Amino acid sequence: MRIFLTGATGFIGSAIVQQLIGAGHQVVGLARSDAAAKSLAAVGAEAHRGDLEDLESLRSGAAMSDGVIHTAFIHDFSKFAANCETDRRAIEALGSVLAGSDRLLIVTSGTGLLTPGRLAIEEDVPASSIPRVASEEAAASVAARGVRVVVVRLPPSVHGDGDHGFVPTLIGIAREKGVSAYLGNGLNRWPAVHRLDAAHLFRLALEKGSAGARYHGVADEGVPLRDIAGVIGRRLNLPVVAKSPEEATDHFGWFAHFAAIDSPASSQRTRELLGWQPKRPGLIPDLDRPGYFATEKRSAA
């Protein structure tokens, strides 16, 4: 199949490109720059110039495809609500040219949108008060207009070589503050998945997914933050300490909300339906490697 992929040069999207090409699919990746187009060509994919705010580029890319995988998102937390609405409009644009056909649209969402403090499952519906729910609301909206839609939810930590997300942010904070910290008793849980296992799930969702389904790309159901902080402290030779809720903002800054997340999630139904079996290392053994600590400065995404 000819697949239009947004976020094709990103941390997850680049792995999806390899998965799809390896399985014999043709990939057309959304490219914002000449550098992105060049990197896509280097791995055997075709570039389609545009971005998430260029809705016509999204519509034309989807129109010439046999299916669409949407992984792109603008990761600027200072404009988070606005970026969520940009994603809503992007999904609606992609869906507008797929309605009434048998072509699948795969939308990326997150398990962190679901009710915290208990094991989230695929059938759960996210809270409507969270800005990021815009993506799933848009998916439901285009589905109501005759688009075959699948939602793939990813956990807060998608890890592996090239990670520039939550865990590297914690590493950066630990370096800056001189301690590796967790909140309270540190038993709040982050689900996680290796980027290559996540990429495999997207391919399976494309090839085997059922319209209207929600799948969870979760390998570790919930890793206690205290365990993550422990590895970081040991690797950096820093004390591992507990911070109270009152100290959270001072220590973690904008990341305090994410440091407090307790959002375990299951992928049992996904594994049963698609035959997906994560094979890569879990978060703790993957984190406990020199690669995660080789760069002095990382940025959140």
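The above is record 1. Record 2 follows with the same two-line structure.
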Amino acid sequence: MDTVLGTRVRPEVLPRSVSEGEVILRVQGLRVWYGSTPALRGVSLDIPERRITAVIGPSGCGKSTLVRAINRMNELIPTVRTEGRVLFRGQDLYGPGVDPVEVRVRIGMVFQKPNPFPKSIYENVAFGLRLHRRCGRRELDERVERALRQAALWDEVKDVLHRKNGLELSGGQQQRLCIARALAVEPEVLLLDEPCSALDPTATARIEALMEDLTRDYTLVIVTHNMQQAARVSDFTGFILGGELVEFAPTQQLFTTPRDRRTEEYITGRFG
């Protein structure tokens, strides 16, 4: 996709510790409706490159809608209507001529419940490559291995790549397999929608450690209902309430000195 230069951002959207050059995704005035029901009400925020940005808020506040709007997954729901802009390296992903399939390759997504295909581990990871990229067998093998290594799964499955079905793995392994599947097509951004909610504490710890490792090469946006998790792993956090972005700030600042009373009430457990 071509990059459009010269995009400007309203100064108040950008936290002080994020420089203009660090921003990879810029959400501007994003509004989403499911039929006549509003889900997002003019959300604007800037997502820095190769950092972890967490999105928190009570159930039904619009967290998942936001990340699904970033890579145009919401468009798969017939009743959804979207207004506003999502700029990826300056280009409006909702602009004319932009292929939503290519958007979803460049901005990958991992869902709340692990969803491996009923195929071998190898074919799970190779699925997107076969669909979107022309690869010879040698390149395919290399990319599958690289993605599994990046997802910290290679050593556990390298001897059963073609023999073991992805559905036979443990819950934590399945989620890392889904992460490897997303990484195989080499996205620049990875969206994770409640990636640990179905996992036990041990598997959760492994996914959190993996997320930190992945920021060497990728930008991560994580939706989580677990505020402790957001505080542990993220660099920036946005708090959404009723479809509105109440506050967006460096994580430590948001959790220790929130600017908005509603943020303080939520993180101290007074509601939600």
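The chain has a mean pLDDT of 91.
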